[in-house]
Design goal:
With 393 residues, the protein is α+β, with helices and mostly antiparallel strands. The protein has 3 domains: 174 residues, 3-Layer(aba) Sandwich (Rossmann fold); 104 residues, Elongation Factor Tu (Ef-tu), domain 3 (Beta Barrel); 87 residues, Translation factors (Elongation Factor Tu (Ef-tu), domain 3, Beta Barrel). 16% of the residues lie in helices and 42% in strands. The chain has 7 helices and 24 strands. The protein has a 7-stranded mixed sheet with strand order 3-2-4-1-5-6-7, sandwiched between helices. The relative contact order is 0.13. It binds guanosine-5'-diphosphate and magnesium ion (MG). The site of guanosine-5'-diphosphate (GDP) has 20 residues, from helix 1.
Length: 393
């Protein structure tokens, strides 16, 4: 891998069965559905990850030959409506997204819902892959193209719409080309490090000797600053502790043992890419995403965690994600909302509402960073539906 190249984080989103995992397989050579449940059911349940380098050979883009132009770190998300929270936490760690729309089925509830989620999470760049063109006539594909154009209007007017067949490997190069044309966001390397944790795990294989044991691993992305091996870090909100029926969060301090950018072991991390940090913590603490939703930084650099926040919000005109589109009703005092902040999800109750500002009391505390973006979901007929977005003030 070329150290000088920039890395873009790209999310793959869209309705279930429209071909997200297949497209990512063709782009990266890796199947991201690897958990046993996913293989059995043929659907993506967790976020899937794959890293590639894009090369340019004369005028052609590919993943094998020519001059390396860009590293890309892909995140595959589930397109099932029950897994919207997973998609939202994925959206917190990406710079750009590929929205997959199957031309034979057209725009479906999660197509719209994912699109507005990208907007709510302030993802700037979008590429639309109009997939399964092998299943439609030219007429149908033109009609579908016009519908997609209409959907993007006022949201992502500049987004290229690329007809592909992921399964038949038609036009995959055009996707590489569109990715290579996305401007690299400016990365702040100098501020205090902000590592957004999307998952955490235990990487030890059964039968390992105590000497070979690895500590708990945090997976996510560094949004700002740099981190290097042997740095001390602090993880917030940290671990949940239960004491005489009371829950509270305990900040965790630890040291960095090793660092990975994608699967490459490195001495230092700077923003861009999907990364992991091996810590000195007991491997058991990292199990089953125990630290997902946390932020890691230099000790003392993060604000105190809080269960009370004030946000400035904007509601969408309509609720998407359901077959018949409905109007979004105003927020009500005492109503329960689901908030997506960075990779964390927390339930909040609106205590006060004044104009487009509200004060909320949260069930799970967060690290309150002013200006941080908040996705707002409401429970409608037993589903959390994204109804707007906001910003911590
Ligand atoms: P996901 O739920 O969006 O990740 O969709 P998958 O990638 O799992 O694909 C769902 C189904 O559509 C699978 O059976 C794929 O083989 C099929 N599929 C994906 N892309 C294409 C395509 O371009 N053409 C056709 N005919 N089938 C496709
Ligand atoms: Mg999938």
């Amino acid at each position: 891998m070329n150290e000088e190249l920039e890395t873009l984080n790209i999310g793959i989103v869209g309705h279930i069965d429209h071909g997200k995992t297949t497209l990512l397989h063709k782009l990266s050579g890796k199947w991201t559905d690897t958990h046993s449940q996913e293989l059995k059911r043929g659907i993506t349940l967790k976020l899937g990850y794959a890293d590639i380098t894009i090369y340019k050979d004369k005028e052609h883009y590919n993943k094998e030959k020519g001059v390396p132009v860009l590293h890309v770190s892909f995140v595959d998300s589930p397109g099932h409506e029950m897994l919207m929270a997973t998609m939202l936490s994925g959206a917190a760690i990406i710079d750009a997204a590929i929205l997959v729309i199957a031309a034979n089925e057209g725009i479906k509830p999660q197509t719209r819902e994912h699109l507005i989620a990208l907007q709510a999470k302030k993802v700037k760049h979008l590429i639309v892959a109009q997939n399964k063109i092998d299943l439609v006539t030219l007429e149908q594909s033109k009609k579908n193209y016009a519908e997609i154009k209409q959907l993007l209007k006022g949201r992502y007017d500049q987004a290229p719409i690329i007809p592909v067949s992921a399964q038949q490997e038609v036009n995959i190069e055009e996707i590489y080309k569109a990715i290579a044309e996305i401007p690299i966001p400016s990365r702040n390397k100098t501020g205090a490090p902000l590592f957004i944790v999307a998952r955490s795990f235990d990487i030890n294989k059964p039968g390992i000797t105590p000497k070979q044991l690895h500590g708990a691993v945090l997976g996510g992305t560094l949004k700002q600053g740099t981190l290097k091996v042997s740095d001390e870090i602090e993880i917030k909100p940290g671990r949940v502790i239960k004491e005489s029926n009371q829950y509270y969060y305990k900040t965790i301090k630890t040291k960095i043992i090793s660092l990975f950018n994608g699967s490459r072991k490195v001495e230092q991390l700077s923003p861009g890419g999907s990364m992991s940090i091996e810590t000195e913590l007991d491997m058991a603490l990292g199990k089953s995403d125990g630290f997902a939703g946390c932020i890691a930084s230099k000790p003392g650099a993060l604000p105190e965690i809080t269960s009370n926040i004030k946000i400035k919000f904007t509601l969408f005109a309509e609720v998407f994600g359901i077959s018949n589109v409905a109007k979004v009703e105003p927020l009500k005092v005492s109503e329960m909302l689901m908030l997506s902040i960075n990779t964390s999800m927390t339930v909040g109750v609106a205590k006060k509402i004044k104009g487009n500002e509200t004060e909320l009391s949260l069930k799970i505390p967060i690290v309150p960073q002013r200006g941080e973006n908040v996705g707002i979901a409401r429970n409608i007929n037993n589903h959390w539906r994204l109804i707007g977005y906001g910003e911590i003030i």
